[in-house]
Amino acid sequence: MATATSVVPDLAWTKKISSPHELADYRQALLAGMDPDAPCIRVCCGTGCKAVGSLDVLEAMKAAVAAAGVDVKVMPEVKRTGCHGFCSRGPLLTFQPQGLFYQRVTPGDAAEIIQKTAVGGELIPRLLYKPPGAKEPIAKVGDIPFFAKQTKVVLQRVGRIDPFDIRDAIAAGAYEGLAKVLSGMTPQQVIEEIKTSRLRGRGGAGFPTGIKWESCAAQPGRHYVICNGDEGDPGAFMDASVMEGDPHAVLEGMAIAAYAMGSDRGFLYVRLEYPLAVQTLAAAIRQAEDLGLIGRNIMGTDFSFRTSISTGAGAFVCGESSALMSSLEGKVGRPRAKYIRSTEKGFRDSPSNLNNVETYANVPAIILRGGPWYTSYGTERSAGTKVFSLTGNVHNVGLVEVPMGTSLREIVYGIGGGIPNKKELKAVQTGGPSGGCIPIPSKFLDINVGFGKLAEIGSMMGSGGMIVMDENTCMVEVSRYFINFLVEESCGQCTPCREGLTRMKETLTRITVGEGREGDIEMLEEIGTFTNSFSLCGLGTSAANPVLSTIKYFREEYDAHIHDKKCPAGVCKPLFYYEIDPETCTGCGLCRKRCPAAAVEGEKKKPHTIHQELCIKCMECYRSCKFDSIRIK
Amino acid sequence: MKIVMDGKEVAAERGQTIVEVARRNGVYIPTLCHVPALEPAAMCRICTVELAEGRRSRLVTACNYPLRSDAEIHTDTPLLRQNRKVLIELLASRCPGSETLRELAERYGADLNRFPAEDRQCIMCGLCARVCERVGGNVLALCGRGVEIRVDTSFGRLSPTCIACTACVQICPVNAIRFEDVDGERRVIVRGKEASRVPLRRCTSCGARFGPVIDLVPVLERAGESGVPPFNASVCPACSRRNLARRLAERHFEQHAVEPRDAGEES
Predict the structure, then answer these.
(1) Peptide linkage before A351 cis (omega within 30 of 0)
(2) Sign of the CA dihedral B53, B55, B57, B60?
(3) What residues are paired with B24 via a beta bridge?
(4) A505 contacts: CB under 8 Å, gap ≥ 6
(5) Residues 6 or more apart in contact with residue A515 via CB below 8 angstroms
(6) pLDDT tier at A280 (50, 70, 90 boundaries)?
(7) Which of A167, A499, B44, B211 can bridge B90 by disulfide, Cβ–Cβ 3.0-4.6 Å?
(8) Mutate to test the interface with B, among A487, A524, A534 (most CBs of B within 10 A)
(9) Could you tell me if B267 and B201 lie in one domain?
(10) How many Å apart are CA A248 and CA A196, to the nearest integer?
(11) A494 CB near a chain B CB, below 8 Å?
């Protein structure tokens, strides 16, 4: 694994931008120095691609360009960028200006890519993306459904710019919204614009951002602007990708918010598990300060705004706003009752505005293009776009941004490419551990994803995690998993969350090992209702959602576990076994070869059998059988 | 501000909490983690009530909800009773044998043995930690997280800052904290584990061990301008009382010019 990181350009000696108009000039100068048609290779270095070796690819590409040097007229620039979104196909790179898309690139491919594609202009078919079921690969980004069906507002620059170079961001339009604000808008006008846009908090609860800003601005005293980057939901990485790919959008959004509320101090609370986001944000703050875009007398005006990064220490509950502020103050990260709102008395008992990363990242575009433009996306109650992290049993795992109100069908099948291995879609889990499972197939496949609709059917928007589950998912196990997660992450101060979750976990664990009892479902419902209604903070009051929603929609599965001691999905190991159907088994021997426990026996071309006492239920035979002959009993 | 509690209009001042208003008007709301002298923490949640303010109706904890506008409050609905019942049953498993919980269980029809007993001897009301912060030496705190949360001293060690005021002993609703004076020391014992040992001072008059030897500076600091009432810390309370009685008697005899009967026999 390459340890090299991008060199962060030092702009300390650059002249500070001294008026909002000068930013436009600076941008023009940057653009004049860039040829829009110059070849450029963008290598995705988001966390997902980094994990599969994209930094090695980046270095190899740079080396290959340097080696090819003399042969090429115009050298392609190799650029390190943030997440492109198509995480399951990483490492990714795109060729500009043609927009060619290569996936699963290895460092070994670098020389060939430069020689064939950059110099020779020909495609390398094996690196192209082929959608599931399609015969022909697709060469261009714009033709791939995963990308073509998205609408990018928050992610507009993510994956296009080098997050470590502010000049790249400015050339792409960063800080223009701030410049517009500083060149004549009053704080009240800024708030009005946000209210017009009907932007709602993207952290989960969906509180109208403009109203929050207004009530914070109305309070006397020193104001604080806080950004919640403590994204902790399992399988969610929207905010991470924004912070890693376009940190300036967050900073700009915070600065605009600070201007609107008369604040001069901001904090970015980023979880410790996002080292890359901390790096990109730190570099972004330094460079923005060097250019006079953040800090004292921004763009030569009277407006000053300083911001710094605080890292969490790995507690999920610190994503809850009052716990976050407590942690920021250096205290234990435990939530407090919010009967007096943070906008009135928050961080250090001062009026504090807290929004999450994605919310702030929406702000510059709204200011620049206006509230009405923003409402042209989405629905009446949920305006704009939303970034989802699409994970689980779906072809195209990754980050997608769609207008609010897009149907689940479009997200899962249109963008996600459907369910792999010819499996049936069973449920979609939204809203993270506090969300619920939406059963599918049902009419819910066509619901329009938005704040209200999801809450109506017992789930929630949350921060945008979306986990697709196929028929081999056991819903009891799913709810046990989430409850277990929450037991680990509960702060423990209030009775319902601490005791209620513990008992629910105990009961669910019992059910998944075949020791479920009569009355367990009713008890889960009773404790779940109690936890949801009596807990102190948002974590507790939604903690039972995974249990309650799965009981509501998949009660028969609970019954099967408790009464028949069977796990119909074949997940809870003590509750099922595999059997080979002698009618359809062709005796190909694949399962015999794959079985790590040597539990499959049989002669070639004759039906095989499984020795139950040897079987470790690893699912290998079930997955490998091409004739669907292995049955879950 | 018009406050209606269980269908009856009650007297309330702006900013008062629901519990304060209820107590003043003789309405019962159960509490476990609340004493009027300490900042409410809303940890036990048993005081949750239904509140309708304007169009919104929701559940809030009575101990820390400040009333700021017209509101209608229900303190004893079937929904609240049901959830309080579950709450008591869950706590009973942590702390079997608690008299406080037994009384509540009777009121709400809770089954104290519904969940298997795990004797943690504590209902996590946090009162000891809060009173220690305000009165004592900030020795006890809620340590750990989630299921593992517990009352303990820093790093689980004997505390060097305890002033052995025993406020925690007095406040614990389940009697999980006690103290004993042995071998010239006062030992504060939290759930069977020693939290501190503070030497006891000797009475200069009778020689008996009495109060703990403590550093008065932090106490005086906390008392601020109001100061601490003067007391003679070198004499035990019994001697102090006797001395006072003697002085009073002497004055009486002086004033009434009566010869004390046995003036010379002072012990």
Answers:
(1) no
(2) negative
(3) none
(4) A480, A483, A484, A487
(5) none
(6) very high
(7) A499
(8) A534
(9) no
(10) 24
(11) yes
Q: What distance in Å separates the CA atoms of residue A147 and residue B39, rounded to the nearest whole number? A: 54
Compare CB distances from B86 to A340, A488, A527 and report the shortest one's residue. A527
CB of A370 within 8 A of CB of A390?
no
A223 in the same domain as A178: yes
* Bridge-based pairing state of the strands B48-53 and A224-229: unpaired
Written as tens digits, the pLDDT of chain B (267 aa) is: 899 999 999 999 999 999 999 999 999 999 999 999 999 999 999 999 999 987 778 999 999 999 999 999 999 999 999 999 999 999 999 998 899 999 999 999 999 999 999 888 899 999 999 999 988 889 999 999 888 999 999 999 999 889 888 999 999 999 999 999 999 999 999 999 999 999 998 888 898 888 888 777 777 777 777 766 655 568 888 888 998 999 999 988 888 766 656 655 554
Distance CA A174, CA A249 (A): 7
Q: Which CATH number characterizes residue B56's domain?
A: 3.10.20.740
DSSP A407: B
Q: What angle do the packed helices A545-562 and A520-534 form, to 10 degrees? A: 170
Residue B96, preceding peptide bond in cis (omega within 30° of 0): no
Given an 8 Å threshold on Cβ–Cβ distance, is A491 in contact with B146?
A: yes
Q: Is A491 on the interface with B (CB under 8 A)?
A: yes
Assess if residue A567 is contained within a domain: no
How close does chain B come to A498, measured CA to CA in Å?
6
User: CB-based contact (8 Å) between A544 and chain B?
Assistant: no
Contacts of A495 in chain B (CB under 8 A): 43-46, 87, 90-91, 123-124
ipTM value for the complex: 0.87
Amino acid identity of A525? E
Q: How many A-B residue pairs are in contact by the CB < 8 A criterion? A: 87
Enter the tokens of residue A238. 């929207």
Q: Which amino acid is present at A426?
A: K
A353 and A456, same domain (yes or no): no
What is the arithmetic mean of pLDDT over A551-569?
94
pTM: 0.90
User: What is the distance between the alpha carbons of residues A616 and A248, in angstroms, rounded to a whole number?
Assistant: 50
Decide if B95 contacts B124 (C-beta within 8 A): no
Whether the predicted pLDDT of A2 surpasses 50: no
Domain boundary among A312, A345, A375: A375
Tokens standing for residue A64: 């290959």
For residue B86, give the nearest of A340, A498, A526 by CB distance. A526
The region that residue A53 occupies, defined by phi over 0 for left and psi between -120 and 50 for alpha, beta otherwise, is left
Task: Report, as an integer, the average pLDDT of A236-260.
Answer: 95
- CB burial of residue A569 (10 Å; 0-12, 13-18, 19+): buried
Q: Which helix (H) or strand (E) holds B182?
A: strand B177-182
Residues B206 and B136 in one domain: yes
Give the one of B86, B142, B149 whose C-beta lies nearest to A530's C-beta.
B86
Helix (H, G, I), strand (E, B) or coil at A117: helix
Q: How many domains does chain B have?
A: 3
- On whether any CB of chain B is under 8 Å from the CB of A510, the answer is no
Look at chain A and report how many structural domains it folds into: 5
Would you call B58 helix, strand, or coil by DSSP? strand
Q: What CATH number does residue A49 fall under?
A: 3.40.30.10
| Cβ pair A340:B60 closer than 8 A | no
The CA-based angle B145-B148-B150, given to 5 degrees, is 85
Distance CA A621, CA A27 (A): 59
- The residue written with tokens 């509320």 in the block is A261
Q: Which residues in chain A have their CB less than 8 angstroms from residue B43's CB?
A: 493-495, 536
What range defines the domain where residue A95 resides?
A: 34-145
Q: How many Å separate Cα B199 from the centre of its chain?
A: 24
* Closest-CA residue to B171 (of B223, B239, B123): B123
